[in-house]
Structures are given as C-alpha cells and as structure tokens.
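Final paragraph of the annual report: two paired records, presented back to back.
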Amino acid sequence: MDRYNGKAIMCGAVLFCALLFSASGQAQQDPNTIAPDADRVLLTIFLKHTQQLTLEEMGANLRKNGFLEKFPPDGVEVVSWYQLMSFGHVVTLKVPPAKIREVNRAIESGSYSTFKSEVYVGYDFWPIIQARKAQMAE
C-alpha cells in the first residue's frame, strides 16, 4: 500500500468513527458502562521478514539471539500470533504498562537482523461498537 492510499484509509476510518459517535440528537454513551482494561495495554507488533535472508538463516539468527526465550516476556498475554505469507508475523499482546520496556528489549535484542519491527498501542474497540449498536436498537 502506498503512502497516499494509507492516508486515505486512515482518514476514512477517523471519519467513520467521528460520524458514528457524534450523531446529533442521540444519547451519548455513559463512559462508566464499559470499564477499560486499566491494568494492561494492547500492543500490535509487526515483525516483517528481512527478505534477503533464507528461512534457515532467519531461524539461525533467532536461535542465536534467544528470541523465543525472550519473547514474549513472562507476565505478557499473547492475544494472537499470525504468520502472514510474504510478510512476516503480526503479534497482538496484552501488556502491563510496567512491562512495555521489557517487550521492547525482547524484540530489539531477540529479533535483530531477522525482522524489522513496528509496534502500535491500541485498545479493544469492539465493546464500544456493541454498546453503540445496542443504543441504536433502543
């Protein structure tokens, strides 16, 4: 996806959310109805393959760096871990805020030279959508 298509998709998503939650004349959601997961944050991690390496070279690098021993650190919940063909891995974790540095260090020291990484912080939006749909049905 090129830079401009990515921006267009992001703008569309932001517009959708703004329209969904700012409809005039409708009751606003009570922020106390959905309790956030205050003791953990959601991290989505993209581990992109280094395309110049063979599968054997990637495996050797990960073993040498102790990636699987370091990642994910203890006390971190794996929500999902997908292997995407021709891309790499997409890993979603629930992480106590105090463990973010440890997750970062595990990625940096364990996957160096094998993956290029991107990390995004997020939150579970599905309960909010469900509450909004329930309000609209009333």
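The closing record of the year follows.
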Amino acid sequence: METTVFLTSAVVILSGSLGVIFSKNPVHSALFMVQTLFGAAVLFVLLEATFLAAIQVIVYAGAIVILFVFVITLLGVDRAEDLRVEPISGQRPLAVVLGASIFGIILTVLIVAVGGPTGVQEANTPIGDAGNNTRLLGETLFSKQVFSVELTALLLTVAVIGAVVLSTRPQKPLIKTSEESQNHNFEEEIEEGKE
C-alpha cells in the first residue's frame, strides 16, 4: 500500500514539476505548482509528518500560490510573449550552467550522506522524540515568538498593499510627451488668435 501511494504521488509531483517548467501560461504554471505541492503533502503524510503536510497545503498551496496568481493577473504578465527574444543576453546558457552545478552539488551531498556506494548511513545521530514536536512548535510560536510572528504578518500585509499600489496605473499620464505638449501649445495659440 505504501509503495502504491509513494509511486502515485511521485508521478503527480513529477508531472506537476514538468508542467511548471514547460507551461507557456504563468497561471497554468502556478496551478501545476499547486499539484506538485499537494503531491509533496501526500508524501509528508506517508512519512507521518502531518504538521508539515498541513503547512504544505495551507501555507504554500493555499496562500503563496494564490498570491502568485493574484500578482500575475494584477501585473498582466499572463499575456503571450515571444520566448525567442532574450531580455538579458546570455541568461539561458548561464541558467544551464547554474542548473547543472546545483544538480551536481545535490547529487554529491546525497552520495556522501548515504556513505557512498556501500549505502551505509554516515549520520547516526538519534532524532529524538517526534511525538511532541507539533505541540512544542505551537507553544514556541505563540508564546515566546508571538511578536516575531505578528511582525512577519504585518510585513507581508504591507508588502501586498505596496504591490497593489505600485501596480495600479494612473488615469492621466504623469509626464507629457513632446507631441502632447506641442498639441497643447498649438491649441493655446489658436485660442489666443480667436480672442
């Protein structure tokens, strides 16, 4: 049963990840990201980490991705763009090099973590009692760290309000173009000539 759940959620995660990468519409990419996050939440439930699964769904899939969708639609970047035009020259080869480097680092860390080809675990530190982790985390967040939590919420609220204010377009242009100022001067001369 566990193998079936793992394989199913692995397929969901991989297909969602590929959808995020290859989707041309940013809103569709955000929805594929929700699919990926739900698959990861199922894996957390499979590992009996229910708190992390709930946080994965509530915070990431519920709040962050919805914020992405709001920002995408607010800024209007969901329109079609020509992908052959590179806004910054050389960014694609640099992205390939950085991606390959990060993949190599992660692969090296994974090989070292399991002790190389033998598969013997190198880290033998006991994890401790995991039964009370959720209760202890909740007590810490809402007793000792309550000011930090509230300050973070206030900071995020100010950031969202700032993004909305910055993205609104004014009704009249703030700066007149030279053509508009010439037309305005010409109209003033006509009015003076009529007087």
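The chain is about 75% helix and 0% strand. This concludes the annual technical report; the extension proposal builds directly on these records.
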